[in-house]
Design a protein that fits this description.
The chain has helices spanning about 25-40, 60, 75-85, 95-100, 105-115, 160-165, 180-190, 215, 230-240, 265-270; strands at about 45-50, 65-70, 90-95, 120-125, 170-175, 195-200, 220, 245-250. By secondary structure, the chain is an alpha/beta fold.
């Protein structure tokens, strides 16, 4: 008896999203469910791990296995899950604060290990859930936060450049205002064997109403995707940060630790005896 194909709505949980009206994360949720339906992945074979923040609510809204972790630690949890369950398709969701600030060190090592994970970072250049502080990707001159009334005054974090330098084997940038492209990029990212980094420009209209202008600022990458890291670095450094599409994809060795363990619980306990 054949199993009927799942539709994107089949991957949406009964939990109603509580994001603010106009939040770009709604489109990211839609892109995730459409990508899963397109790939025909059984819901019990998908796990979505997140940290803390508005974007990290995503696991509650997707009908799959989910794990809502602690701030900045989503990639560490996802790596442990993938190490134990290589058969699962593991997606990781976070924001610019969760992923690039407290979780920045985990990002570096997740990239260099190149485990088969897909990391979706929803970047709105602000800490939205904690009421509008500057984040690592906030422009140095942004003055709307009470904590930094004169602007952060420091250079922005460069997500794609950092991911490339750290060893990610798939790097792309999407925009919540272009859900069709975002869905296609997600399909490519999930299909790619290795660490896929998908940087998503996702406006926060509550604390960053100026990001409405992103709709007019985004544009396709002028150059074709490359599998050469040196060429990818040139593309990223020459970019204005608003180009959309696949930047870099290379077939690199994937790190997957052996899941079998011959040690017993008693063996582990013996290691801690004084």
């Amino acid at each position: 008896m054949s199993v009927p194909a799942l539709k994107s709505t089949d991957y949406k949980s009964p939990v109603t999203p509580i994001w603010c009206p106009g939040c770009g994360h709604f489109a990211v949720l839609s892109a995730v469910t459409k990508a899963l339906a397109y790939l025909g992945l059984p819901r019990e074979q998908v796990a979505l791990v997140s940290g803390i923040g508005c974007s990290s609510r995503l696991p509650a809204y997707v009908e799959s296995y989910g794990f809502h972790g602690v701030h900045g630690r989503a990639l560490a949890v996802a790596a442990g899950l993938k190490a134990a369950r290589e058969d699962l398709t593991v997606l990781v969701a976070g924001g610019d604060g969760d992923g690039f600030s407290i979780g920045g060190n985990h990002l570096l090592h997740a990239c260099r290990r190149n485990m088969d994970l897909t990391y979706i970072v929803m970047d709105n250049e602000v800490y939205g859930m904690t009421k509008g502080q500057a984040s690592p990707t906030t422009a140095p001159e942004w003055r709307r936060s009470k904590l930094t009334p004169h602007g952060p005054g420091v250079r922005r974090f460069q997500p794609a450049a950092i991911a490339l330098a750290a060893g990610a084997s798939f790097i792309a940038r999407g925009f919540s205002g272009d859900p069709s492209l975002l869905s296609r990029l997600l399909v490519q990212a999930i299909r790619h064997r290795g660490f896929s980094f998908l940087h998503v420009l996702s406006p926060c209209l509550t604390f960053r109403p100026d990001e409405k202008e992103w709709k007019q600022k985004v544009h396709p990458f002028a150059d074709s995707p490359t599998s050469n890291a040196v060429e990818a670095a040139r593309l990223i450094q020459a970019d204005d940060g608003m180009s959309l599409g696949l930047i870099y994809a290379e077939d690199l060795p994937v790190w997957q630790p052996a899941s079998e363990c011959s040690a017993s619980l008693a063996d582990f306990e013996a290691e801690f005896r004084l």
